[in-house]
Amino acid sequence: MKFLVVLLFAFTVNAAFAGPSHQLLLKKVNEVYEPSQSDEDYMHTKTCEFFEDMFVITHATGQESSQSVEPATYSVKGIQALIAQAANEELVTSLSGTCDGSSVFIDAFMDDQEIQLQELIFCNSHKSERKGAATRMLTTLVNRYCPSL
């Protein structure tokens, strides 16, 4: 365990001196345990973030959170090319028939701009998704790296 903490610290310090890494993709899932409550103590948020040099998974419930950081093992240039293609794909919005108490967001980032790939909001609301091959490949990649989200 000490080795992991030291390795994580060394990686964090190295990343801090190397300058900020650009975010490529984000998957965020909000789960509400008491749907009638809006208090964050009832919210469990899970995020997967793809950066140019690392991959970060965070779990947060109320005031507590945990995080794991791993080096990037994906093609940054390949992801950037897919994001550029996905940005031009049609965004389709419809009513959501899902009511499982959670919301899911998958976003991409290009040139300091956020590009919505997929969004599913709480019960009886809407869902939005870009329709096209690039979006499908990006969401498949995100879901493979983040299977528990």
Question: Helical proportion?
Answer: 25-40%
Globular, elongated, flat, extended or rod-shaped: what is the shape?
A: flat
Number of strands: 8
Span of the ends, CA to CA:
25 Å
- N-to-C SSE string, H for helix and E for strand: HEEEEHEEEEH
Structural class, by secondary structure, is alpha+beta
Using only C-alpha atoms, the radius of gyration works out to 17 Å
Spatial order of the strands in the main sheet?
A: 4-3-2-1-6-7-8-5
Query: Mean pLDDT, nearest integer?
Result: 81
In DSSP terms (H or I, runs of 4 or more residues), the helix count works out at 3
Tell me the strand percentage band. Answer: 35-45%
Low-confidence residue ranges: 1-17
Main sheet overview = 8 strands, antiparallel
Structure report:
The protein is of the alpha+beta class. Helix content is 28%, strand content 43%. It contains 3 helices and 8 strands; from the N terminus they run αββββαββββα. It has an 8-stranded antiparallel β-sheet with strand order 4-3-2-1-6-7-8-5, with helices on one face. The two termini are 25 Å apart.
